[in-house]
Amino acid sequence: MSDLRNKNPEAGSSEITEKLHSRFFSDKFRDLKAYTPGEQPRVQQLIKLNTNENPWAPDPIVAERVAEEAGRLHLYSDPECTELRKILAEKLGLHPENLLMTNGSDEALNFAFMAFCDMNHPAFFPDITYGFYPVFARVNQVPFHEIPLREDWHIAPEDYYRCGGTVFLANPNAPTGLLLTLAQIEDILRANSDQVVVVDEAYVDFGGESAITLIERYENLLVTQTFSKSRSMAGLRLGFAAGSRALIRDLKTIQYSTNPYNVDRLAQAAGIACLEKDEINRSHAEKICRVREWTKEELLQRGFQATDSRANFLFVRHEKFPGSALRDQLRGKGILIRWFDLERIRDWSRISIGTREDMETLIRAVDQLLEEKDATGRD
User: Fold this and answer.
1) Structural domain of 354
2) Smallest Cα–Cα separation from 96: which of 303, 290, 215, 242?
3) What pLDDT digit, counting tens, does each position of 156-204 carry?
């Protein structure tokens, strides 16, 4: 089992600090390195380009439905999310039985670690990817293997052939933003026909093609998605898993054994309203993609390197800003970005895509930093 110390690529500032545990804390979790969320500042003047949030709020009808539902908070939510699943299934071309609604896609991923991994079925995922995967493995006491990305940050499909365990792949990957094609996903599915392959599509709406279209052909495929990114609902925690009816029944067993009321009334009402206005969500995603490409070109002109991100963020580096320097200096100018304390990517930063105005402010700040470097004569 891999050592998680200093290996969480999502590590960042937060109020979670290293403290001595109580004398009652279980020994099995003594060395657990918890996932650290991105900084959520209380200073409103800062431009937040550090947590991959959508810069646009959902359609006003979402807030209206939430307000209406607030009058029924004395009643439990529908554990089956019946209406929400029905509407979502119609949009995805699936049956409701192919879907499980969850408290964010993180819960769906945790359910998958619980349902499909054990000592005889270890987890396999890249060494640079979503930082929650190793945490889920450790908290569920699952052995895991981190497979190194190639030097160009790509996932090599052949590295996941006949793994002998459950495969977890973020597609597009985070924080690199790079994408596997559906043909490559199919190769991995065929090579692991006796194992579950989980495809985490948190960012798929910003330039990817969803593997949901493959579900009817591959009984070992589980896809997770979230309403947090392209559907602007990070604050309400809503996600889902899609797969064969058998896989979904497995996950439902975990759900009903932990928290059957996992999606509250407000989130269900918001999700239904959000799907009714899905054309607005698609429009927002398209704007983010346009601003992403504009920002990337501007940064390249200023000497940055950048991956071909298909997500709502850019993964960049500049030789004049090693390590966490870019993060620290941009924060001094009122802009938050994300830096990961992981050896292979210590010189890289992840920049979420905001509005065009946000990104123009970022570019002006970068210009100022470069001018300051030139003025002092330091590289």
Assistant:
1) 27-56+279-376
2) 242
3) 999 999 999 999 999 999 999 999 999 999 999 999 999 999 999 999 9
